[in-house]
């Protein structure tokens, strides 16, 4: 409320109070209210300090006027007496009928209206001029934060019928004031370029149109000054200081100049490192091992901070949620040394009273709680809480997970866990189409719900249609089939391969079956899985002299007839596997390891008697917050037993976006020559080797975006037939760049790869892509 408004209100109250002094006391027989348009009479009676039957006095009259003014509903209130009837006449403040914005491009009108709600300026509310003036200043601040110092905001309130007003904001955004120079004064040891390259704020450069890093912001400058301080203190300059900063703008408000005055000081060494305080709760040797800075090291503030954080985390694992470890320095300015004493104060041991969950609209509470390793009424354990957060993120049900540990009011040994989640869309429906020289138009339909009805169960259906390959499958996974975390998966499928549409007739297969699998957790990161799959496969349309000889020989062995053109087989396959998964994220990991050993064997006595063994080791290491290196190795071996021939349709195939990029899907290894130059039939093999090395990085122009990731990679691999030995000199190599996008429809991979030792018989592709999960 402005000074003028306050003065007018004071004078009105004063005059009305004077009028009230002339009122003779009387007993109220009735109360009448006049002038109401929107406000209910009951609201007025609720705020009145008197009622029928009370004795009306001068003091009560003044109090009644003040009470009604304080509601904010009225701009004028009068009280009169007429034959023991209290007559109250009011004039309501106008209500806001409409809010309009013009000239705003940097901010959407809907977003501005949302901001107005926070200060009580919204359609339907009582109009308050002081709030309108406040809103005007807040909008100006938002433009100043964007570097638009010439922005102007003018407001108007136009009266409408029925005591309403229309509010209008006329905005002239003006031009953006850009940083012309950043000057650092006092630097002797490092160049200005070395220093300012650490800053968020930069002078105008060729990427500023995207990053907006040449637009001055007080918050960013504060962060940059802290970065500057860390830059020096992590290199030993313990007495470094920022003496002053000046920010100036040219008269035309086009250019901004920033000057930072610093004192570097001398470089310090660490003369001694000690522990003190309560060292009984955690073995001193464990705390000592967490100290990153050692005697005779150059002082490094980051290592000191890491040491205190590490010790606090270790104490937190044993229930000391409010431990406090301080590094107390003793500085010798003459010798430029500093000794550090890490004083340990564990505080009181606490336990978790309750776990409260917020933000889950679809996901059931028990689906979230079953991922927690911290339990209610148990001792607080920081590592278990951290692991719980990782597990929640790994479900991929939430875009954000935040866990807070507020103390329980009135208690010194209890905390609550406040879990706030932001749900993401976990279902996807994908329709796709593609064009292939061999298959023509390929259609695909995938529907997936990773959190079916909020239960955490995954349901997926897939239909892929093409002239050559057709797949129909349904898969259901219950990750917590038992309370202990045993997972149950079962699926049914139908897969058809019809090569009759190619220039050369080869073979057709039709497979259908059903499987069931269990996964049993052995520890937090290790699990074993086992299952059974019943499969029936029919091979048909084999042509002697055209189809691969091995295929005809296989069916001949199954049927007992020479030169058989088809055969049917049934198999019951048992599988057993072990896996270890310590990745911090399923789709875009930065650290961790994934290991898997799996084997399968078909039951004796049936048409197919074979076994298969596969091994995979994948390792991720974050080099810093932006770069992650990945190394992956895979090996596979399969064969038959009991004198049976190995089924050719169970071969390994290498090549494609998930194995050796730059080569067509499955187009490596042994082949049979067809009648045309593009009709080679790749046979696969019973042995495979795959190796990948990849460097992940952010996509330029997309800072702090976790949905996109760029990579550079080198791949190697090949597949070997039954009559071939593994020869590493036959490995195929490729290198290239890749882009991954976690889109609303599923993960999308786009790859540009260049093979560099491909043979004339290999089929290569420079650009490859894949969209959606693989079932």
CATH architecture annotation of the domain at 3-92: Roll
Task: Give the strand line-up of the largest sheet.
Answer: 18-19-20-21-22-23-24-25-26-27-28-31-32-33-34-35
Query: How many E strands?
Result: 35
Mean pLDDT: 86
Quaternary state reads single chain
What is the CATH first-level class name of the domain at 3-92? Alpha Beta
Contiguous low-pLDDT stretches (5 residues minimum) are 14-21, 432-442
Overall 3D geometry?
extended
As a percent range, the share of strand residues is 35-45%
Question: How would you explain this protein's 3D organization?
Answer:
With 775 residues, this protein is of the alpha+beta class. Among the domains are: 3-92, Roll (Ubiquitin-like (UB roll)), CATH 3.10.20.310; 95-172, membrane protein fhac (Ubiquitin-like (UB roll), Roll), CATH 3.10.20; 178-263, Roll (Ubiquitin-like (UB roll)), CATH 3.10.20.310; 269-345, membrane protein fhac (Ubiquitin-like (UB roll), Roll), CATH 3.10.20.310; 353-423, membrane protein fhac (Ubiquitin-like (UB roll)), CATH 3.10.20. Helix content is 18%, strand content 41%. The chain has 13 helices and 35 strands. The strands form eight sheets. Strands 18-19-20-21-22-23-24-25-26-27-28-31-32-33-34-35 form a 16-stranded antiparallel β-sheet. A three-stranded mixed β-sheet has the order 2-5-4. The chain has a three-stranded mixed β-sheet with strand order 6-8-7, covered by helices on one side. A hairpin with an 8-residue loop joins strand 21 and strand 22 (487-498). Helix 1 packs antiparallel against helix 3. The protein is extended. The two termini are 64 Å apart.
